[in-house]
Amino acid sequence: MSANTPIPFQTKTPRPAAPSEVHILWITAGLSCDGDTVSVTAAEQPSIEDVVMGAIPGLPKVHLHNPVLAYEVGGEFMKFFYDAERGNLEPFVLVVEGSIPNERVKSDGYWAAMGTDPKTGQPITTCEWIDRLAPKALAVVAAGTCATYGGIHAMAGNPTGCMGLADYLGWNWRSKADIPIVNVPGCPVQPDNFMETVLYLLYQASGLAPMIPLDDQLRPTWLFGKTVHEGCDRAGYYEQGDFASEYGSPKCIVKLGCWGPVVNCNVTKRGWMRGIGGCPNVGGICIGCTMPGFPDKFMPFMDEPPGASVSTATVAAYGKVIRALRAITNDTVNKEPRWRRPTTRLTTGYKPKTDTYAA
Questions:
Q1: Which of these, 101, 176, 99, 89, lies nearest to 140 by C-alpha position?
Q2: Alpha helices in the chain, H assignment, sequence order
Q3: What is the pLDDT of residues 236-263, one digit of tens each?
Q4: Rounded Cα–Cα distance for residues 173 and 162 (Å)
Q5: Rounded Cα distance, 146 and 99, in Å
Q6: Which among 111, 112, 37, 106 has a CA at the least distance from the CA of 67?
């Protein structure tokens, strides 16, 4: 083989052809407030409009079917879900919003449904739709804390049997493309976090990205790999043991009930919209809404978190010494060096316009 002969590309299994079109079937029939859908309309990195209008290079054409955002109504809207169930709408990504009320563990009737079964005339429950569509989906995404881990509706003693999508399908569940459930928590979900995750999956479907990296709670690692505290503008005050005693202070708000040091979320770094906002950034405590233990393990809200009294007392003692040492250093470096002749009398030859130059 000569040096100019091209080397043939070899692979054990041929890569499937990238789809020219992908449908996103978005179920909001879980127990929720549709707040995740509303939140995502504020995304800009990318925006929904950029994705569905083909403004992003390399993506297949995307069709979004969300009951809050769709212009179709009634049977015209439901047609896409029935087609997907019959295998006539491929490939598609299934997005589930809202916690899953599992009738199999509660015998009090059904709690959520979408559409009517033409064979029985009965509502099609949320669980039935997940059973029908999840096995045929390219990927399944849980949008918001209710869908990911159950959220408010899954608090202890709830009468609905509510749970997160991975609790319902199983934490080791895989789509037909061998993609795990993808959890994007938040109450509501941070807009760009969700759309960036969808964008990644679309690139993966096009063969332009590797398997999406997820942590042990099925969250995208690049979004939830750090804590609120690590990106917080107030973290420097914590390190110096300088804590707020009332709302409105720019100092660290851990003693007011903030769980930021132990909560996986990037909102302090990313902000809410256009880099602006995010709970501690605007003076609000972190209540742990991106965590699997929310809300039970984070209540009562606005009380100092367990263990915080020990950690803040330790940091306060350390921080007092650090602040004193830094004050000395600041006083030293906050002056010009002596060799630059900083004096109270002008020696530069400059003549002030008045004789009222003050030393």
A1: 176
A2: 35-40, 48-52, 74-85, 126-133, 145-149, 165-169, 191-205, 221-224, 235-239, 267-270, 308-333
A3: 998 888 999 999 999 999 999 999 999 9
A4: 19
A5: 4
A6: 37
